[in-house]
Amino acid sequence: MLVNGCKKDSPAPENPEPNPPTTGNELVYPKKEMRAVWLTTAWGLDWPQEDYNVASQKQQYIQYLDKFKQLNINAIFFQVKPMGDAFYNSPYEPWSVAITGVRGKDPGYNVLKFLIDEAHARDIEFHAWMNPYRIATRASTGTAYPPLHSSVKPEWVVSHEKIQIYNPAVPEVRQRLADIVKDIITKYDVDGILFDDYFYPDPSTAGQMVSDQTDFQQYGSGYSSIQDFRRANVNKTIEAVHDAILATKPAVVFSISPTPNQNYNYNTLYADVTKWCQEGWLDMVMPQLYQEIGNQSNDFQSNLSWWSQYNYKAALMIAYGYYKFGDPAASSAFQSTAELEKQFNLTRKNKKVVGNALYSAKYIMLNNIGITDKLATIFNTPSVIPFLGRAIAPAPAEASNVRIENGLLKWSTSGNVRSVVYYFSDLKKEGQVYALTKENSISVNTPGYYSVSTLNVDNQESKPSGAIEKK
Question: How many helices (H) and strands (E) does the chain have?
């Protein structure tokens, strides 16, 4: 049973709200919100689902994006490195088997550039989701692991009974993982890098484990226990990736999505997530709160409360178990769309939470028990992604000469910006996002008040204009 807990000597953080609702001109602006979807490629689960035809692969992905755009979803976490392989031409790892059915086979097109360009064409951010250590899995020792990439030295790898991983204890592995991140952010216009919750393997699922006692003897000088040594190995990797991002392309947002239970992270996976948040190595932490409100061993609300206290310097997002809705094996709470709305009500009221991610993409399309219809009512207006990383681009200049002429709201901008149009039915009520646009005019037919701000490429927002009334 997983029980929430933290180290007793962890002080409660004094962390101000990272992205408060924008206020100004006596108007109340809506809270910013990243709305994301996980897109899983391990075993081809979400994409390309064993479809190895280039044209239909592309069409399947476009259908996803068009649906996300319709639902006002503004980001995806796409799994570009699921199994020690890659969805791009990498000097470190082979092409993923999920693209062509053959590991290492060139698919004949620039997969990742296509994926990113199509997302950005719809103003959807693209965060590259990577599994840092996993190379391969198998059911038992009766199946051989696939051959290692030519750049991988066998001594960098540990082959447990059911999972093969890069050895976290080896310094060359830490450098390699940082180099893999550096390579992708140098070559591709990704908005972020996300690591998931796999670090040291969980013995309950990895089968018979290969001892790391020899690693401890070789590298563990100065550590009082092998457990501290393991945590330090992962800490060094996270810090190295953080440093590589800052040195290479500091606008890229670095995030990690841990399991909800820090005791499990700390003592089983040897992932000291709260330390990473305290040190500022993460821009965003996104715990996977996949259980229902009231779950006796892993309650959604309790987990939300815990992470709201211990996210420290990292912005807090929440990942939801969207796949459970309508699954007959899931609890009764997940047989009703009301559970999703209740969870969103909790996170939206929480001042720390800056966004959400739904696991995973194919369940958006399936719409089991009408859950995507419910999502459409929750995401009924567009949303502005909060500023999550570092200020690299020039601050956006305010919109000027905001006016209404012949049913068109018009304004002027300068620089590389998008504009946010806000609508207020009443000056005393919280407004809503009416539109995000690269244009400098938009049709407005609804009586009320309109205000315009600008966003730069880092999601920094200018001061909004004063309200203009449409009678």
Answer: 13, 21
